[in-house]
Amino acid sequence: MPDNADRQAVLDRAAEGGRITPEEALDLYRSAPLHALGAAADAARRKRYAGTEHIATYIIERNINYTNSCVTACKFCAFYASPKSDDVWTRDLDDILRRCAETVELGGTQIMFQGGHHPDYGVEYYEEHFAAIKERFPELVIHSLGASEVQHMAKISGVTPEEAIRRIHAAGLDSFAGAGAELLPARARTAIAPLKESGERWLEIMETAHDLGVESTSTMLMGTGETNAERIEHLRMIRDVQDRTGGFRAFIPYTYQPENNHLKGRTQATLFEYLRMISIARLFLHNVAHIQGSWLTTGKEAGQLSLHYGADDLGSVMLEENVVSSAGAKHRSNRMELLDLIRAADRVPAQRSTTYEHLVVHEDPAEDPSDDRVVSHFSSTAIEGGSAHPELNLIEAK
Ligand code: SF4
């Protein structure tokens, strides 16, 4: 049984960028003192970003939810409606383009196209929409979808996932957001998403995407009753693929939200579990560049703390979000507040691109952007044409 001296030796190795085993990671995750774990992760972050270690990044993006119709019925999900239900809605292309126009107007650089597994939406649907978005707004990066959507659209269209990826990439998809990873180990995944593809299949499709030159981020949903060992196994599965492809740009753990879903909030991850995960991800995933703190699901203070536990990025000012909001995530921010939060956490904020280049480094608070329309929102999906900001209702797609 390792003691704290043994653990410190493992932490020191990992802080230097050395590789640790899944067994070592599990022991650290369970038993290392929290501050020692965070200090090692912060040291690893500083070493990786030597020269820019004082910076923490954010992005301005918009989630665009194109439909809530979904045949997959995940138990943790508060967003979907069964395809035959009266609660189903879809957004037409004009509405989607108007949301893109607002994103550009507000200085957003990325859209995340996000929706349910609609029974009729095959590859052609995504080709048409991505091509239309790119034609009107070539400056917007389409960082969207994941292996689950690829599996579903390929099945609808009767093609292989590889062909589906080639076609939607050619139509305009820039990178995959890594949606649908949830929990990759079989027991934990089946317990919350019995109709989703297996974790192995999810990874196979992401690996295919990476091989085709379409990079992605990776995610983990924490707090639905999975064990610590399953959390570390999830990281191992991602690290093994990353060893082969190098295609995961970032790892983003986020916490299960308890409202309006079949799991009924019987379990939830605590703040300390979340911070421990941020740290162990930085240490174990030595081959993944970016670790993102999720203030949207854990809260702003947790986001600030995550910057001291290994995270280098705080995600986005999300101009619109409807998925985790439906399950109870109520945290909202705006760009000015996010800059203040990052500075209060002793970092210099920088707006980044999808590929993590620094677009603007906000060195001087006196020069901060002051557009108070750059606010994270959920637009009620019940309101036809709901938009990021009331003043922007009249912006038309050009
Ligand atoms: S998480 Fe995605 S796939 Fe699962 S039910 Fe919700 S919308 Fe459908």
From TrEMBL:
S-adenosyl-L-methionine binds at F76, E182. It catalyses: dehypoxanthine futalosine + S-adenosyl-L-methionine = cyclic dehypoxanthinylfutalosinate + 5'-deoxyadenosine + L-methionine + H(+). The keyword Lipid biosynthesis does not apply. Transmembrane segments: none annotated. [4Fe-4S] cluster binds at C70, C74, C77. Its cofactor is [4Fe-4S] cluster. It holds the Pfam family CofH_C. GO terms for biological process: menaquinone biosynthetic process. Gene3D superfamilies: Aldolase class I. Keywords: 4Fe-4S, Iron, Iron-sulfur, Menaquinone biosynthesis, Metal-binding, Oxidoreductase, S-adenosyl-L-methionine. Pathway: Quinol/quinone metabolism; menaquinone biosynthesis. One of its GO terms (molecular function) is 7,8-didemethyl-8-hydroxy-5-deazariboflavin synthase activity. It comes from the Bacteria. Binds 1 [4Fe-4S] cluster. The cluster is coordinated with 3 cysteines and an exchangeable S-adenosyl-L-methionine. Its EC number is 1.21.98.1. (3R)-3-methyl-D-ornithine binds at S294, S316. CDD domains: Radical_SAM. Radical SAM enzyme that catalyzes the cyclization of dehypoxanthine futalosine (DHFL) into cyclic dehypoxanthine futalosine (CDHFL), a step in the biosynthesis of menaquinone (MK, vitamin K2). NCBIfam families: CofH family radical SAM protein (TIGR00423), menaquin_MqnC (TIGR03699). Belongs to the radical SAM superfamily. MqnC family. PANTHER family: FO SYNTHASE (COFH) (PTHR43076), LIPOYL SYNTHASE 2 (PTHR43076:SF1). This is Cyclic dehypoxanthine futalosine synthase. The lineage of its organism: Bacteria, Bacillati, Actinomycetota, Actinomycetes, Kitasatosporales.
